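User: Quick one: structure for sequence A, then sequence B.

Assistant: Sequence A:
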Amino acid sequence: MKKLLQALFSMSADTISPAKRWTALGVLSLSLFVVTMDMMILLMALPKLIIDLSPTTAQQLWIVDVYSLILAGLLIPMSALADRWGRKKLLLTGFFIFSVASVLVLFVTTANHVIALRALLGLAGAMIMPTTLSMIRTIFSNPKERATALAIWASIASLGAIAGPVVGGLLLEHFSWHSVFIINAPFALFAVIAGLFLLPEARSTQPPRWDMLATILSIGGMSTLVWSIKHFAKEGWDDTTALIVFAISALLLIGFVVRCLRQAKPMLDVRLFKRRPIAAGAITAFFSMFAMTGIMLLIAQWLQVVLEWSPLKAGIATLPAAVGALLFTPLAPAIAARIGARTVLASGLAMAGIGFLYIFLFGHPLTYGVLVPALVLIGISTASLAVASSLIMSSTPQDKAGNSAAIEESMYDLGNVFGVAVIGSIAAAFYRQYLDIASFAGQGISGALADQANKSIVDALAVSAQTGVFDLATKATSAFDDSILGIGLVGGIILVTIAIIVFALIPKGLDITSQRHD
């Protein structure tokens, strides 16, 4: 057994056959599908979980937030650990923890148990996500093959995020909330077994030193940043606690950057950001997820609250975005080879912007038929993520693959968080403006009732049913529709502006099928 394990962990990328490389990609992509799906699937199960375990408001927030807090805080340290210990070892360890944590849900009896499990899943996710990307960089040394591999990887990752609500809705139609955890276990266990035989081991020839101070600064800075942004979304941008925590996160992250700049072998080579293609790729990753997550959150809520569709039906209704992503992501590298990487990246972001503007221009009245073309356009825009990954990896030496993977995955995670927080907060501000709750004071909607109705359309509908003021429900629905149209305008302007910036950052004629280290 010992000799077998030594042989399995001594395989190198140079010795595996082309067929085995693509099979290994299949394992990495399918496994990542489960991890990205897990980010969205819990939201569908939360109502049933609340009924079963009766968590407090604070516990509900931790159940939702702890995964992304742990994931964000550990992405950079885990990437550095993979460079030293071995990417295959860390990846398979992450999948093993993921499978165990998913099964442990069967023994959950309290909300605190769920929080602990979600934290454990966040730890496993931090081991898995950057390592899958750096493994692709290791396995596919040929830049042209790597561009195709990253396109497949990006397609599956996007599909996982979009499929989360559909799979969650389907499971919850027939099973308890535990099922959204357990579904992960067989996939993660398969990844461990298949990965043992198919994946090569790889580590940096010049690994970063394990810097405890940098680790503390990274974990503290990223976790507090994510927490503050989430808190801003819930309490408003003038919340004192969130402002203090945000300031602390800024100080910690600045300290982390300074620490890395002073080290000969830093935990994260922040100088990589000086390379314009890497900076452009990171910006694209951030804003692509920002757009997708933010608008999907609003649309999913609109489908379930305004149209009163079931979670499963609402999940299926978001599939046009998946269709757009799946059709164009595999083609993105070939298109980039013809018309240039910067055109594809800028066009992808602009396409998302056009999707947002389409909602604003044609959403009077707002119907599902209007949302379908916008979802397709936003889905197509995610095809640029494949090119962004190729751009980052083709501009990175193999020894720095873990660093670049950590940067890209951090941008994905932060894009998710900022998308929910920023787009959600702007939509809430539009909603309150259009609702004009003060106009209902004469009908008895004032004080605590007015504050409740002002929070969200769900709360407004509850107040309307409680008081019998049915005009409030009509006005709240109209205000929510108008808030989505407002987001269409704001989001469209932001994304088109970012598209112009990305176009300017990337050198003309940059080829993602060639390796660049300059």
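Sequence B:
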Amino acid sequence: MSSIEGAFSPDGPLAREIAQFRPRPQQREMACRIGDAIAGNRVLVVEAGTGTGKTYAYLVPALLSGGKVIVSTGTKTLQDQLFNRDLPRVRKALKVPVSIALLKGRANYVCFYHLARNAGEGRFASAGDAADFRTIARFAQTTTTGDKAECAGVREDSPAWLAATSTRDNCLGQDCPDVKECFVLEARRRAMEADLVVVNHHLFFADVMLRDEGLGELLPACNTVIFDEAHQLPEVASLFFGESVSTAQLVELARDTRAETLAAAADCRDLIDRARAVEKAARDLRLVFGPESERLSLAQLEEREGFQQALDTLEEVIEAFAAVLQTQAERSEGLGNCLRRCDEIRERIEKWRSCTGDELIRWVEVFSQSAALNATPLYIGGIFRRQLQAQPRAWVFTSATLAVGTSFGHYCGEMGLSGLEPEPMTEIWGSPFDYGEQALLYAPMGMPEPNDRGYVEAVARVALPLVIASKGRAFVLCTSLRAMREVHERIRAGLEQAGVDLPVLLQGECSRSELLDRFRQRGNAVLVASQSFWEGVDVAGEALSLVIIDKLPFAPPDDPVLTARVDHLRRNGRNPFMHYQLPRAVINMKQGAGRLIRSETDRGVLCVCDPRMIDKPYGKIVWRSLPPMRRTRSEADAVAYLEAL
């Protein structure tokens, strides 16, 4: 028996040392397969259903491999869980002398320079933000890591963190007066020395693209890369392999320049005025668009009145700003860094305006307070493939949702894994949960087509009796913010009219972590949310017994990146719907459905309102990709099931 297989045996080290450990054949087989991939420097793509225990399945062979391993996660939540809980447990059970390190992007670490610079300025929107800043300042004096996840008194999304951390843009690097105390540099040093490093996908690709000084050393030194939550990689890779510049970066640059000018060049009033002009021009560019968030193609931008003029004005204003900043840059490290940032932003805008050809998709994403100019690669597979072939090492890709049916063709194609020599190894291990007993899939009858004007009202009408029967304890997951807000209002009004008192929470009312805390604590809440709650959310137990999905999660047909990729596939004689849109929707659907059953004792109903899952020929591909739940089209069955829980 191999040491990996032995670790998972009923009387092995994991069973002896970890109280919650239960031997599962899927987990043991997956671990052995990963061990084979590591030993042979192979590429392995693994789908492991919820409850398989994939974390231990890759940690055991990683810790026993004897080489340097990078484990990359899609979320910081899983990153922290791995480093603080799972890794120490497994390492202790296996009794292996493996050093481990946690590495995040620099915006996750307190920066002494920015903390000191902003301490006396009092530029906070509320007394709460100012109090958060004081808490962070006290935390900085006692922490050994500087990791903001350890500062329990301040929310992760508090605006105070912007004044207490650095970014790639405003970090002074080796010129910083506090460089010897820098938490970022210390975290990198530990990562370089460790046998196993836990990073996240964003940081991994920053390393690949050498966008951060010093980070490019991580990847060449490792023998194995393991991606958990690997379904997120195509999206993250597109972000890093492309180019982006936002009005928010310009506003931040303008504010930082004003602060640095007051500290080191207060006699140069012209620079302060020029910085204000940059901030105004950046905000004016954002005001060209409406109040709602949107994504616009190049063709749509050409038709948008005022866009070209606002962009021309912004470039002129930046040019004038840079000319004055050049004359003051030597007066402090901070001003010198502002000039470097200004030059980089000018270069990115110029690149965005001038790039042509089929390889890059130019588009703009509009947020509530900012707008970003993006140039996204049409296809990231070729770029990523070069990383795979750079030097021999093992690559493991794992998630609960990578396959469409039993095929990994879509995922391997997107990531450039198809056609490698040798071919990637692929495996699917289903969930050990008994979905036939634990869950019911309900597809309501009589639903209108999703593009019907009354569709959202019909979704709320379907949801109401289910929510009442389950006594809350429900997620209602919508594919658009507009539908989310309307469904929330209709469910809230319907419950009020029925005289049923249940808390109905809405994404955006507060931070994601606060919403989840409220949902868990109340025990009878309904949470209406959109895409950001479709994955990475784990509510085990009775607090969640019902998941309602309004539509199959196809990307909006007017999405600029989707449109460009669809056109490209069509020109190459392929069916964009079957080769790209449907596989992506299936993978997203599996993520949303995966919120329901999180443990052996969970039970509940998954309601998919979209009639296309039943009426369209491709609907079979969707529901056959979901866990094998018992199925019904009867509302009475679904209500009775929920009432019996």
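The two ends are 43 Å apart (CA to CA). The longest helix spans residues 307-328.

User: Thanks, that's what I needed.
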